[in-house]
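Supplementary Text 2. Reproducibility record for the structural model of the 183-residue chain.

All settings were left at their defaults, and a single model was retained for analysis rather than an ensemble. We include the record here because the model underlies the residue-level annotations in Supplementary Table 4.
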Amino acid sequence: MSKKEFLLELERYLRSLSAVERNDILQDYEDHFTFGIEEGKSEEEISEALGSPKQLAREILADYHIEKMETSKSTGNIFRAVWSVIGLGFVNLVLVLGPFLALVGLLVGGWIMGISFILTPVLVLLSALFNVGTFEWFDLFFSLALSGLGIFISLGMYYVSLGFINLLLKYLKYNISIVKGGK
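Retained model, structure tokens:
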């Protein structure tokens, strides 16, 4: 594959990046070709050594989304980072998506439990309003105890969520290094 074909194909796969970032990356690979030619290698040898532009673009996009996740831990950035790492290979569908969905399910369940416990006094009072004559003090005090427990659960879930995001970030970086051939 010639230098021009390689760079055009790489640019096509990197179209989701901003023009400035895409041009910086393309300039780096153009320089790579220039240095390789100065060392006496042909364009075909250089492009073969670099590998597939599609796989190279996947790795670049995965690194890019991981960096964005590090700077801004928004839900969208987390999902984009996970999805880009899954795109590196079919095996990642099992190694990344499976554990990610399981842990997200546990996190969502914990948050739902904490918030529902916090709202129990409101539900007891609404029940007393709509079902006149069914109010019992025990229900109110028990719901207040559950509400306090819900506050502690939600506080714990906040810290568990922060830990999950940091652990996910480390796992995604590790996974990328394995795919790139690191240890």
